[in-house]
Amino acid sequence: MEEYTRPHFFFHGDVGDEKLEEEKRRCHFCQIRSFPTHTRYPITIVNTEDDAVLDPSFRFMDRSILGKGVEPTKREFLTGCECVDSEDCQYNTCNCLQDVEDDSSDDENLYGIDGARPHKKVYAYHSHGVRAGRLRSKVLASRDPIYECHESCACGPYCPNRVVERGRQIPLQIFRTKNRGWGVRSTVDIKKGQFIDKYMGEIITAQEANRRRAESHIAQRKDVYLFALDKFSDPNSYDDRLRGPPLEVDGEFMSGPTRFVNHSCEPNMRIFARVGDHADKHLHDLALFAIRDIPRGEELTFDYVDGVDDSENDALDPDKQKDMTRCLCGSKGCRGYLW
Ligand SMILES: C[S@@+](CC[C@H](N)C(=O)[O-])C[C@H]1O[C@@H](n2cnc3c(N)ncnc32)[C@H](O)[C@@H]1O
């Protein structure tokens, strides 16, 4: 085992069965090694800067878990598509694309080879060629949600419209940065539009999120780990789960590697809301995609306040700046402060 991994490998020695289980449960290395994707797309942890280790109470997970009072939609209400052939999922007859606007101005041919059937490229990904599986540039430049086929659909697991569902396909490394604690990088080159990973954690009710905010010792900074699932929130929605305050994902104590991604004012990734079953919009995923080519080893970042109206930015107000946290992203367009 590499020296820098050792501090994350809790003692597994002669401690008795009960304690051994507890040691294994806390061991970061055991947690990441137990992921089914570990051999192909491992997560590694390196620190060549100082003696810091990840918080021992932090737990790696490869999927979000539902907190108390958070219910997924009952199976009988799930509504997958009936496309028998995954190729059909590229047409606007696919149920999963019911909320996607038709678009005839994109960067692939509009019609099938026979020219007969409109080949509406309504889903978010390129389906052929070297760019297969990457987000189309139009979607990448938008704030649009991504609608994918999913486990209740008739199309197979290799349907081109199941990119996020297939999960992370990139090895990630959590590394100690010089000045911003831990950060994340990939050990392989990443292409623009490529899916990187989801932001995962405990999905909790708005009340529970507020309770955690109130009791957090990091006060307002708790917000950095809480992401509201509010993409479809609408006071006029027919779905009462979308009318009320949204659920939130808390990644502080249990999450995947993306929980260690730092902020940049000029980031190389962006978060997109991804929906599987339309009946589960209140539980949409938060999926990170590369917004430009990212060479291996470059730190992965996203903008923590992406899309927030800059005129409301406290960093523009000299009076408020003294209470704010300096941004150390180092980009040319740095706004100076995180919050
Ligand atoms: C979601 S965590 C990211 C992982 C974190 N670096 C760690 O070591 O656990 C967010 C925290 O990272 C730090 N951070 C992230 N981006 C930063 C930036 N651009 N400048 C300064 N600090 C940053 C801040 O302390 C922030 O509260």
Q: What's this entry about, in short?
A:
This protein has about 350 residues and is α/β, with parallel strands linked by helices. Among the domains are: about 1-35, no CATH class; about 35-70 and about 165-320, Beta-clip-like (Beta Complex), CATH 2.170.270.
Supply the key terms.
single chain; 339 residues; alpha/beta; Beta-clip-like; five-stranded mixed sheet; four-stranded mixed sheet; globular; binds S-adenosylmethionine; histone methyltransferase activity; methyltransferase; metal-binding; H3K9_Histone-Lys_N-MTase
What do these coordinates show?
This protein is of the alpha/beta class and 339 residues long. Among the domains are: 1-34, no CATH class; 35-71 and 167-321, SET domain (Beta-clip-like, Beta Complex). The chain has seven helices and 15 strands. It has helices spanning 17-26, 28-33, 137-140, 163-166, 206-215, 240-243, 318-321, and strands at 43-46, 59-60, 65-66, 146-147, 172-176, 182-186, 195-198, 202-204, 226-228, 248-250, 254-255, 262-263, 269-275, 285-290, 299-302. It is found in: Chromosome. GO terms for molecular function: histone methyltransferase activity; zinc ion binding.
